[in-house]
Amino acid sequence: MVLVFAESPRGHFKKSAFEAVTYGKKVAELLGTDCVALTLGPVDDASVLGTYGAKRVLNLPDASLTHFDSQLYTQAIADASKQLGAQVVILGHTTTGKSVAGRLAVRFQGGLISGATGLPVLAGKNLLVEKTVFSGKAVAQYELSGAVNVISLMGNAVKPEQTGSAVAPETLTLALNASKIRVKEVKTQEGTVPLPEAEIVVSAGRGMKDPGNWGIVEDLATTLGATTACSRPVADSHWRPHHEHVGQTGIAIRPNLYIAIGISGAIQHLAGVNNSKVIVVINKDPEAPFFKAADYGVVGDLFEIVPRLNEAFKQFKAAN
Amino acid sequence: MKLLVCISQTPDTTAKISFNADNTEFNNAGVQFIMNPYDEWYALVRACELKEALGGTVTVINVGPATNETTIRKALAIGADDAVRIDSDPKSAGFVAKQIAEYAKNAQFDLIFFGKETIDYNGSEVGAMVAEYLDLPFVSYASKLDLNGTVATLERDIEGGVEVLEVDLPFVLSAAKGMAEQRIPNMRGIMTARTKPLTEIPAVAFDGFEKVSQFTLPPAKAGVKLIDPNEMVELVRLLHEEAKVI
After folding, report:
1. Can you give the residue ranges of every domain in chain A?
2. Are domains A2-171 and A195-319 of this chain identical in fold?
3. Any chain B CB within 8 A of the CB of A64?
4. B43 is a domain residue
5. Is A296:B225 a contact under the CB 8 Å cutoff?
6. CA B235, A223, A273 angle in degrees (round to 5)?
7. Which of A112, A138, A146 has the CB atom closest to B125's CB atom?
């Protein structure tokens, strides 16, 4: 049995949950077994997980799981895995998933791959799974040999596929320990897609010259339904909020399309974005190192090019 | 207060990555190694700041061969009081976590620090594993940490925002940007680091359940296609028809 932990921060599923269930269904097919989805805490409507391939959907509605605590979440997922006899446990490679995956592997004394980028293949009873290493500069294939193996799935590594139909959630009862974490406040920007989940990211750097100039970047992002990001110097100067910073010290992302505006492309920035499927670089300096990592490049004045590109996207959207 | 900072040694960010002939091991030849930046800039510096403000000791621990001593001495130069090296190759995240947990389990640390991830295997695994072995809370991606007696207040990066939380000592954390500012060791630090205690401990046996079976390098990029700045309609067409991303 393959158990998928479908994360629902503040009661809502994000794309990472649908990706994890889609992936879990494919792993279950590979192993000739079923995929079961588990949700923790009060949640909107878990029946939707059936449409992504979960055969059963289990919910543990305990209010103490409303806020994240790695110990409680580990206990809940491990106990459910044991009850159900899970061979593989799958989680999204999110801040929550990453805080739980290692704990689960220790508890199971099982195998772990953190940030898997593709589906496993079988090698006897073992699983071979790939992930990127060295900040995107190489790929490593891991062989997992545990009686139970844990896989955290990198965002945007699989596309969510709705192939099944809704499944009525079953309520699970487990006795949980008391949480030692007291969450005081959660500050998020609701309504925007978080960077690790975004399929299109529009990012800008020091070439913007002034934080007051960001309107053209935001307009372009709005047209594309994209999430905005920035380089380190921009975040360090407080031109943009810290959580927009992509790169080695910020967030590592792998969107389908990354548009870099006025960013030179230092190696530390590339380390966080080089796994993007397609990279477009707009920079006035033809020698900017970013062009070497780009698929498409535009050399020129970003204050002219970005509004022009926005108009071209608008025309395209209107026609398609 | 007793603080433990777990440090890893990684290839420098700019290092050229290559592997041995059968692509099963990282090729160390000619590679410059550094202290994992998140361990150094965020975890170690914040631990030293807390010790300097509140008293106590900072111990650094590294799982690695004797050649890692340069990295360990740098941590001592930055401000750690003593160091422990578990004498073994860091075979896997599971192996490293087991070694650190074995050392820490009877040592009564108030706080155990990690960086948010290492820049080589990018796993973000070891902190959570050590917390599980020691049955302690784990706060990952902490960007702010303040202590008031035995109560810690932290900010933690989450997708698209920040979580503010409280937890009692002892616990394990992984540190992200915002936790502290990079600190350059001064001459006095470098001099005193030479004589600070560095204890070598043999590794405990641990059979892991994962190993790297093969490394590959990603295919080289085809090269950038330059588009005339006046032809943005053409760029949109290429993104749609050729790259198929819109």
Report:
1. 2-171, 195-319
2. yes
3. no
4. yes
5. yes
6. 65
7. A112
CATH topology of domain A195-319: Rossmann fold (3.40.50)
**pLDDT, one tens digit for every residue, chain B (246 residues):** 999 999 999 999 889 999 999 999 999 999 999 999 999 999 999 999 999 999 999 999 999 999 999 999 999 999 999 999 999 999 999 999 999 999 999 999 999 999 999 999 999 999 999 999 999 999 999 999 999 999 999 999 999 889 999 999 999 999 999 999 999 999 999 999 999 999 999 999 999 999 999 999 988 888 999 999 999 999 999 999 999 999
Distance (Å, whole) CA A101 – CA A106: 9
What does pTM read for this prediction?
0.95
B211 touches chain A (CB under 8 A): yes
Distance CA A27, CA A21 (A): 10
Task: Report which residue type is found at B176.
Answer: A
The kind and range of the H/E element at B198 are strand B198-202
Cβ contacts from A onto B, under 8 A: 274
Residue B162, amino acid:
V
Residue B174 to residue B42: CA distance in whole angstroms? 9
Give the CATH fold of the A2-171 domain.
Rossmann fold (3.40.50)
Containing structural domain, residue B197: 2-218
The interface pTM score, or ipTM, of the predicted complex is 0.96
Q: Cα–Cα distance between A135 and B161 in angstroms, integer? A: 23
State the total domains in chain B: 1
In the beta sheet, which residues pair with residue B12?
none
How far is it, in rounded angstroms, from Cα A66 to Cα A219?
35
The pairing of beta strand B33-35 with beta strand A296-299 = unpaired
Considering only CA atoms, give the Rg of chain A.
Answer: 21
Q: Does A237 touch chain B (CB under 8 A)?
A: no
Euclidean distance between CA atoms A177 and A156, whole angstroms: 34
Which residues of chain A neighbour B214 with C-beta distances below 8 Å?
140-141
Task: Name A154's Cβ contacts closer than 8 Å, sequence gap at least 6.
Answer: A93, A115, A116, A117, A131, A132, A254
CB of B169 less than 8 A from some CB of A:
no
The answer to whether A291 contacts chain B (CB < 8 Å) is yes
- Residue B228 domain-assigned (yes or no): no
Which tokens is A234 given? 């921009």
Within-domain flag for B224: no
Which domain CATH number covers B163?
Answer: 3.40.50.620
Structure tokens at A293: 């990592």
User: A291 vs B227: CB contact, 8 Å cut-off?
Assistant: no
B230 in a domain, yes or no?
A: no
Which DSSP helix (H) or strand (E) runs through B84?
Answer: strand B82-87
Count CB-CB contacts under 10 A for residue B47.
31
* Residues in chain A within 8 Å Cβ distance of B128: 70, 98-103
Residues 6+ positions from B219 with CB-CB distance below 8 Å: none
